[in-house]
């Protein structure tokens, strides 16, 4: 029979820490993350029930290193969230939100006429879709503005590094939003260059510039390396299959400026 020790943790992450108890030996396992500070952890058969300030949740802990939330219900005010990016898609507003307790980024759709409602019409978790970007302070690697829409598809543009070579790259996450209640990740398209947040240092000033714009059925990206710059063009004429179709060099200069469209 398995024996457990359940410990409430609070700080960088809130939740229930699982510890295996085997005789006199203790083994640290995974954490069942909670919305708000954890208050109780109770074993119910093979399920863990957690009760926090905001929610009651059950977890499958067959893999005790990676507890999986199986159900959750809010019992107080909704958990605090921040919205980092927005874009319009027909009758809906897309928002990139982050749960302040779990630091879990997500793409959500809400009706344009009911944007004040907390609960989205549809939600797609971004955890695991762009691990490098998510681990780097969640949104620090998302290009500005970072979210675009075209013909019932959404495109999330991440600026990150190849985990194998360390080379900079740009990742486009393609999301099917034909059904607003069930946004679905279709594919990732990696481009062999990075964007990065670049600044205009002339006149002693610095400001964050827009690095990606949508022009018709194309994304245009500003790429700068060692004062050499180019426009990189991604074709969206087949919305589900973005393609890098061209590079246009820009004259060398100390500052090239951001993009507008």
Detailed description of the structure:
With 261 residues, the protein is an all-beta fold. It is built from one helix and 19 strands. A four-stranded antiparallel beta sheet has the order 4-5-6-7, with no helix packed on it. Strands 8-9-10-11 form a four-stranded antiparallel beta sheet, with no helix packed on it. Strands 12-13-14-15 form a four-stranded antiparallel beta sheet, with no helix packed on it. It is elongated, with a radius of gyration of 22 Å. The N and C termini lie far apart (64 Å). The model is unreliable at 132-141 and 197-208 (pLDDT under 50).
Short description:
The chain has 261 residues and is mainly β. The protein has one helix at residues 131-135, and strands at 4-9, 15-22, 25-33, 38-44, 47-52, 55-60, 68-74, 81-89, 92-99, 105-111, 122-125, 142-150, 153-161, 168-176, 184-191, 212-215, 218-225, 228-235, 243-250. Residues 132-141 and 197-208 have low confidence and may be disordered.
């Amino acid at each position: 029979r398995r024996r457990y020790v359940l410990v409430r943790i609070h700080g960088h992450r809130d939740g229930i820490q699982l510890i295996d108890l085997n005789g006199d030996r203790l083994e640290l396992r995974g954490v069942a993350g909670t919305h708000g500070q954890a208050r109780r952890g109770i074993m119910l058969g093979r399920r863990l029930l957690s009760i926090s300030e905001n929610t009651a949740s059950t977890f499958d802990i067959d893999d005790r290193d990676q507890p999986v939330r199986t159900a959750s219900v809010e019992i107080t005010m909704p958990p605090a969230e921040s919205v980092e990016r927005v874009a319009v898609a027909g009758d809906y507003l897309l928002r990139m939100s982050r749960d302040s307790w779990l630091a879990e980024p997500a793409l959500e759709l809400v009706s344009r006429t009911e944007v004040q409602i907390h609960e989205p019409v549809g939600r797609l978790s971004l955890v695991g879709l762009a691990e490098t970007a998510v681990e780097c302070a969640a949104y620090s690697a998302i290009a500005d503005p970072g979210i675009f829409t075209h013909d019932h598809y959404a495109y999330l543009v991440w600026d990150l590094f190849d985990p194998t070579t360390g080379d900079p790259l740009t990742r486009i996450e393609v999301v099917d939003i034909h059904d607003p209640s069930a946004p679905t990740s279709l594919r990732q398209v990696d481009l062999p260059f990075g964007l990065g947040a670049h600044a205009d240092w002339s006149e002693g000033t610095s400001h964050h510039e827009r690095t990606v714009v949508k022009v018709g059925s194309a994304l245009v990206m500003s790429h700068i390396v060692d004062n050499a710059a180019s426009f990189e063009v991604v074709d969206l004429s087949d919305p589900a299959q973005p393609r890098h179709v061209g590079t246009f060099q820009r004259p060398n200069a100390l500052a090239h400026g951001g993009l507008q469209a």
